[in-house]
Amino acid sequence: MEYAEYFQEFPDAYAKIVAGLDRVNTLYAYLIDRGLLDHAESVLSIGAGSGDVEVRIAKQTGRQIAVVEPSQVYFDQFMQNVAEAGVQDLLIEAHRQSFQDFQPPRQYDVALSLFSWFAFDLDRALLLKALACRAPEGKLLICLPTEDCPASRISAFSRSGGINLTSDRLSHWARREGFDHDYDIYHGVVPVGLYLQEGGLTEQGKDLASFLAATPWDEMSDELREASLEAIQAGRRGDQIDHASGCLLFDAGKHAAAE
Fold it and tell me: A single Pfam family, by name (predicted)?
């Protein structure tokens, strides 16, 4: 099973993992602190999932948002989140389709792919398409885990395909292909106690390992369990676990576009 299918088959498990990572709060803070939304009026999210970050952007900053999301489950949850946040007037587009099928009706000041580029791998045509979604002075931001991130270490031995792309690999490939960009590290840190306890993993840690490895904990071999523990321990920085992610910023006002 490809990760995209696994992702859609177990949305509740994914939601639980994202909540544990505190990704909505940390990602939103990163976007604001880095000034990535400055001077922007419209934001396109590619593979928005349930759109928690995107809804936060609309509610807190008043930016207009547009999303592309192929999963009916996540799309429905996104629409519910929009209604509950009261930002319907700021939702300019909602496309329930794949990015491959998406035909952008306009250009956007900022295009985001927040942990969704797994689905596209090293596809030159799709990167060009994403870049073309930007306004003349717009930006494209792609975030993925680094190769040293605990999530990437566990994903390396996942039973599911389509989850092994890292920000490092994408960045190196993009530069070789002539796509200049800035590369920044976003640190999504959580307390050690969320995943680690004396002698092993907490239930939340087991959930994380099981989801990324696409293998229920009670079906994991001792070797796989130990590898999962070591992967999470590798991300320990003092009293925190760092889920470091690399962010590729393609700024139309700064970087020449590849042909």
Answer: Methyltransf_23
